[in-house]
Amino acid sequence: MSKVQVGLVQMSCTANKEENLQKAIAKTREAAAKGAQIVCLQELFTSLYFCDEENYDNFLLAEAIPGPSTDALSAVAKELGVVIIASLFEKRTQGLYHNTTAVLDADGTYLGKYRKMHIPDDPAYYEKFYFTPGDLGYKIFKTKFASIGVLICWDQWYPEAARITALMGAEILFYPTAIGWATSQDEATNTEQYNAWQTIQRSHAVANGIHVVSVNRVGLEQNGAMKFWGGSFISNPFGSLLYKASHDAEEVHVQELDLTKTDRYRTHWPFLRDRRIDSYQPITKRYIDED
Q1: Boundaries of each CN hydrolase domain copy (predicted)?
Q2: Are 124 and 182 in contact (CB under 8 A)?
Q3: 256 classed as catalytic
């Protein structure tokens, strides 16, 4: 399809997993009512962002994929005729967990999953305690409405991940996200961090000539110590903002994307044509030390 209606759901979460799931389903219905054909939910939307601490009890939040949440969302996808991108805490087997996004097609079919490749470990983002790095590689999903690439939060800082996914044929890059500000920070630091976050993702749109959709959460968590900054946005294939959400409010937004723009921008700005793939071997090194 040359044009596709993309919906994003920016919402706050509680400690009640079922309540969060039902809230996400209600907002997916709202997006579908506005014409959405593909709906993207934020990272780990069925819970609070539990990686603020290293707590073994939080492993109880994990589930199989496919499993209960994907079963529930599959029924909704089929009923509404929409694609759903759902970021979940995956229990692969006993003692092995991933930060994973499942993709459900518009007929309810489970198309597969992407496991987050880049795992952060920072104050209040102790993801290495919970998640094994992804081992499925980068993925695209050929949905009813578009071939989509899905990357997750910390992946969004890495141009290599965006490039590979685009080269695999992704027409749109989706980034389910959970990122926020420490409430102790000053406004200048907050602004700089958000701008960097948005800029790096818009640069992926420019470099690869494809739309980028980034979906974040909102709300105070961690006993008020963290304010998730929302600011979900959609960029066209040349980095122009088509939509930007607020930093505070829950929002359901639907945006029409014209996928023919990719050919236009790639033709006039032929970054893919001029890639010197014969010269890129050094990128596989951790660091290029002098001999």
Answers
A1: 4-259
A2: yes
A3: no
Query: Rounded mean pLDDT of 263-270?
Result: 98
272 is a domain residue: no
Q: Mark whether 116 is an active-site residue.
A: yes
* CA 222 from centre of chain: 22
Per the domain annotation, does 291 fall within a domain? Answer: no
Instruction: With a cut of 70, say whether residue 42 has pLDDT above it.
Output: yes
Counting the structural domains of the chain, the total is: 1
Q: Which of 13, 23, 43, 91 is catalytic?
A: 43
Confidence band, pLDDT 50/70/90 cuts, at residue 291 = low
CATH number of the domain encompassing residue 108: 3.60.110.10
Q: What is the pLDDT of residue 290?
A: 79
Question: Residues near 65 by Cβ (< 8 Å), separated by ≥ 6?
Answer: 88, 90, 100, 102, 113
User: Which of 13, 23, 153, 171 is labelled catalytic?
Assistant: 153
Contacts of 288 (CB under 8 A, 6+ apart): 282
- Containing domain of residue 34, as a range? 3-267
- Write out the two tokens for 93: 């087997």
Q: What's the predicted TM-score (pTM) here?
A: 0.97
Is 287 part of a structural domain of the chain?
Answer: no
Would you call 23 a catalytic residue per the annotation?
A: no
- 156 in a domain, yes or no? yes
Maximal C-alpha separation, the chain = 61
27, 91, 116, 139: the catalytic one is: 116
Residue pointed to by tokens 């951790």: 286
By the 10 Å C-beta count (0-12 exposed, 13-18 middle, 19+ buried), 56 is classed as exposed
What would the pLDDT profile of 60-95 be if each residue is shown by its tens digit? 999 999 999 999 999 999 999 999 999 999 999 999
